[in-house]
Specification:
Number of helices: 14
Order of helices and strands: EHEEHEHEHEHEHEHEHEHHEHEEHEHH
CATH architecture of one domain: 3-Layer(aba) Sandwich
Helix content: 25-40%
Largest sheet: 6 strands, mixed
Strand order of the largest sheet: 2-3-1-4-5-6
Radius of gyration: 24 Å
CATH class of one domain: Alpha Beta
Number of strands: 14
Structural class: alpha/beta
CATH topology of one domain: Rossmann fold
Strand content: 15-25%
CATH superfamily of one domain: P-loop containing nucleotide triphosphate hydrolases
């Protein structure tokens, strides 16, 4: 399940079968969006529902299968439910009948592991109210709201919405600027954007559009050209650009064309700082030079797309890595947020794309197993800069700012 283009806050509803998760979603939305049944296991897979919640705004609610599902098929459903944790910004754990034991404790432990804020809702209080002792114990143990309600009684649902409003992290709505801290009023930023077989017909790729918008939002001037025009154009530019951003595929050309005193980086590295695990990328990228024959490299694409004959992740990066290291390396490419084959320990390095289609939280959670296992991680743009010998120049515009601005750490 991928968050994809849905950049709105994602709220996951978790709990056992027949605890009324779908009923709660309908109550929060004020309309019948989820199928409700007395039959346990009606919801079989995580289902995303886009809606507007009064006092919160547009969100994506994710209705999940019961965490107590059984059998071979049930185990697969539970696995998908737990996978949903990688993309959510807030969790609501639904319990009933005053039952809270190992199943719920394990799920809360996963919330904590993935730094997901949560609240607990005791549903169906018209059948059995929440005991005062359980409410007190849960609130004290987890330091979170514990709300007793019936999903059919709207005033009680308002208490859930109020708690959600307080718990949803601000980062779920906003993300740091791509380059606002690097430029000043009136600065010119030159964007080098090749138009090749991978360029979408009639438009620009998302990181290029995002960069242009961010420049304008920070009162800068965006100038766009192809790599063939850079040499003649940059000689005529007055004033010279305060920053040059290039597509990673033409890094070498840009490095040769842009005078050394002008800061140069790539769209992919911009994204790496904004929404990737930038500090671990900085630590991991130099390990490219330590790769050995037979090492397996995991390449993570954030989206599914048509694969061209000279695809950046599947063709160019493996070719460049092979040429740079002189080693025979093996590659595994995983698109979207699909399951990684084998175990993370099977890989010597992980290379993540820019991540323009997913959120920082998703990328951090995607890379967490590798980081926890001590496996080096890097990013498309940073890896390309390393093998082309221009890594230090490419990350220089950011390292000083990252030390000064904790929003990017």
């Amino acid at each position: 399940m991928s968050k994809g283009k849905d950049t709105k806050p994602h709220i996951g509803i978790f709990g056992r079968r027949n605890n009324g998760k779908s009923s709660l979603i309908n109550a929060l939305a004020g309309q019948e969006l989820a199928i409700v049944s007395d039959v346990a296991g009606t919801t079989t897979d995580p289902v995303k529902k886009s809606m507007e919640i009064a006092g919160i705004g547009p969100v994506i609610l994710i209705d999940t299968a019961g965490i107590d599902d059984t059998g071979d098929l049930g185990s697969k459903r539970v696995a998908k439910t737990r996978e949903a944790l990688k993309i959510i910004d807030l969790a609501i754990l639904v319990i009933t009948d005053n039952v809270f034991d190992g199943v719920e404790e394990d799920l809360v432990a996963e919330f904590s592991d993935k730094a997901v804020p949560f609240l607990i809702v005791h549903n169906k209080n018209d059948l059995k109210p929440l005991s005062a002792s359980l409410k007190e114990n849960l609130a004290e143990k987890y330091k979170i709201p514990v709300i007793d309600l019936s999903a059919t009684f709207q005033p009680e649902v308002e208490a859930v919405i109020s708690a959600m409003r307080k718990l949803i992290p601000e980062s779920a709505y906003t993300s740091p600027s791509l380059l606002g801290d690097l430029i000043s009023y009136g600065d010119v930023v030159l964007l080098i954007t090749p138009i090749d077989i991978e360029a979408p017909e009639g438009r620009m790729i998302l990181p290029q559009v995002q960069a242009i918008r961010d420049i304008l939002d920070h009162d800068g001037i965006a100038v766009v050209c192809k790599e063939r025009e850079v040499d003649s154009f940059i000689r005529r530019m007055n004033p010279k650009p305060a920053l040059v951003i290039t597509d990673s595929q033409v890094f070498l050309k840009a490095d040769a064309s842009v005078p050394g005193e002008i800061p140069l980086t790539s769209f992919s590295i911009l994204l790496a700082r904004q929404r990737g695990d930038f500090q671990n990328y900085l630590k991991g990228t130099p390990h490219i030079s330590n790769l050995k024959d037979g090492d397996r490299i995991l390449i993570l694409e954030s989206c599914t797309h048509h694969v061209s004959c000279d695809d950046i992740g599947r063709v160019k990066i493996p070719r460049w890595l092979g040429n740079f290291t002189g080693k025979k390396l093996e590659y595994e490419v995983v698109s979207g947020l699909s399951k990684i084959p084998g175990t993370i320990q099977d890989y010597a390095m992980v290379i993540q794309c820019g991540g323009c289609m997913i959120t920082r939280k998703q990328i951090i959670n995607r890379l967490k197993p590798a980081v926890d296992a001590g496996i080096p991680v890097t990013n498309y743009g940073m890896a390309i800069a390393w093998v082309h010998g221009i890594y230090n120049r490419a990350v220089a515009p950011f390292t000083k700012h990252n030390n000064e601005n904790s929003d990017y750490l």
